Amino acid sequence: LRLLVAAPADAPIGRYRVAIRTRTGAGEFATQFQEENDFFLLFNPWCPEDSVHMDPPSQLREFVLNEAGRIFFGTEEQIAERDWNYGQFDAGILEASLFILDRRGMPHSARGDPIMVARVVSAMVNSLDDNGVLVGNWTGDYSQGTNPSAWAGSVAILRAFLRTGAPVRYGQCWVFAGVVTTVLRCLGLPTRTVTNYNSAHDTDVSLTTDIYFDENMRPLERLNTDSVWNFHVWNDCWMKRPDLPPGHDGWQVVDATPQETS
């Protein structure tokens, strides 16, 4: 006897265990089969009914299956790049990715929604408020951990977080983004790493960068909290947005660098 089980396209992702109970025609319990191995259910961007479906599927070779890439940094005039090993199929990475959702206490009923999964991952890849994956450090003193520039991939970071349950030291924007790409690709979401040069940082939700002066044209430093960074790295992930008006499906920005509360 061969049984085929098809999960709905919006089923919650995660680890599942299979148990089969059989009954007689009279409804009496007959026997039970317990599969020894668990299985993992992920988002399926090849499935047209899945919210993360991407067309044409050939793009998935890059945005889901590619295990390595380059992350750009530097300045607009001097663009530099670094190789990054995403390693989303390496041993332990799937377990680490699901551990991130568990650590946040994400309800299993919400894990079929890529919108919610992406938001949880973006919040949990940094350690601010949630004891997430990475501690951000822009001080220049990395004596208590690893210099962000020394990381060459996500695998060692995620394995350390899974093993210890403690935030890994240290990360900056490209490290956060590299880890997000790994986790979301591992879970089946098409994801890319994006670098923006002359990147404005708005701290008061005005959607402008503002500079304040007093009557003598002296800068009011206590008010001048906006800034423009040489570069900033974030992520885009691909999904449908049924919660928004038509026309907003496709690439969605996800930024795990701790800046402003969203």
UniProtKB/TrEMBL annotation:
Keyword Transferase included in the entry's annotation: yes
Coiled-coil residues: none
Xref: InterPro entries: Ig-like_fold, Ig_E-set, Papain-like_cys_pep_sf, Transglutaminase, Transglutaminase-like, Transglutaminase-like_sf, Transglutaminase_AS
Domain Transglutaminase-like: 165-258
Pfam (any one): Transglut_core
UniProt keyword annotations, A-Z: Transferase
GO molecular function, one term: protein-glutamine gamma-glutamyltransferase activity
The protein's name in its UniProt record: TGM1 glutamyltransferase
